[in-house]
Amino acid sequence: MTKSTHREVHLAARPRGPVTDDLFEIVEVPLPEPGPGQVLVRNTHMGVAAVMRTLMDEASPVPMPSFGIGKPLHGAAVGEVVAAPGTDLHPGDLVEHRLGWREYALLDADEAHRLEPGLLPDPAAYLSQGATALMGVARGAEVRPGDTVFVTGAAGGVGSLAGQVARQYGAARVIGSTGSQQKAERLIEELGYDAVVLRGAGPIEEQLRKAAPEGIDALFDNVGGEQLEAALAVANRGARLAIVGALASQLSAEIPAPTRVDTLSLLSLGITLRGIALYEHRDLIPEWHRRFAAGLRDGSLTFPHARLHGIEQAPRALRELIEGRHLGAVVVEL
Q1: How far apart are CA 189 and CA 185, in angstroms?
Q2: pLDDT per residue over 212-263, tens digit each?
Q3: DSSP H or E segment with residue 186
Q4: pLDDT for 39-58, tens place per residue?
Q5: Given the DSSP bridges, would you call strands 235-243 and 216-221 parallel, antiparallel or unpaired?
């Protein structure tokens, strides 16, 4: 291998408002050399996620390390092994790991997880947030046949798959929320949603009551705030409400108001309100890959995503994700 340098994306400054490209710096650094027990990976694809905005702050409420000033960012990536001395990995193996935002990654062998060759038709599909969608549907909201399900943030990387998975679990009616009419139309026409609640088009609770006149049985909540309050207001007896994300807080430039919860309703209607995170359900990742592979091949699942090309596009990818420019996941092909 004749290459001696590669590029990384470093955090240049912490945001004091909206994410802008000048908060990042593309840096050329020496190519690392693996020692015994280490793996050098040429990254081919990396994903961006809303939580990365939270990790740009010095202190983060999520159980993940914040990004350091002058250091490369990190996140989900897929790549090919270049060298792996003293390990059971071999050059050419496809692996996934958490050191994206760089063209080459050096990591300990136990941090690189070998992927089954050819399982998914597109390596970028390994960067879907479908394992989170599966977790929220199956273990959080416990979706059952005949349920009416409300998915907030339905046009995001998680929500765009959660509605599809809920249908696989037998949901009779799936309602989503989003912030634009164009996305609302695509959710119905392309992803099989029955109705969409549009943020900014009037009180969420009123829209949700029209979309779910018989109430909701399950909630997959990526947002919180007013949308969670609306779901609580129209929840049926025994409804299961899963808190999977908190976009209303993560992407707010201001301190968000607390979400009001009517505890008497929870008690009298036997409603379950549950926070759930993937780091405690990582056993679902291989199950999701198998389910996703089958669904992509038989057409029962799709992978809505935007793909940008080149590591220099990574800051733009995150900025546009936060601005809501895309439907589905956002992936950078390196």
Answers
A1: 6
A2: 999 999 999 999 999 999 999 999 999 999 999 887 665 554 555 578 888 9
A3: helix 181-191
A4: 999 999 999 998 899 899 98
A5: parallel
Strands (E), the chain: 5-11, 24-30, 38-48, 77-83, 94-97, 104-108, 113-114, 148-151, 173-178, 195-198, 216-221, 235-243, 272-275, 305-309, 329-333
CB atoms within 10 A of CB 20: 12
Residues 6+ apart with CB under 8 A from 94: 78, 79, 80, 81, 114, 115, 117, 123
Record the tokens describing residue 331, joined without a space.
């992936």
Strand 173-178 and strand 148-151: the pairing is parallel
Q: pLDDT digit string (tens) for 56-90?
A: 998 877 778 899 999 999 999 999 999 999 999 99
pTM of the model: 0.91
The three-class DSSP label of residue 267 is: helix
287 Cβ contact list (under 8 Å, min separation 6):
131, 134
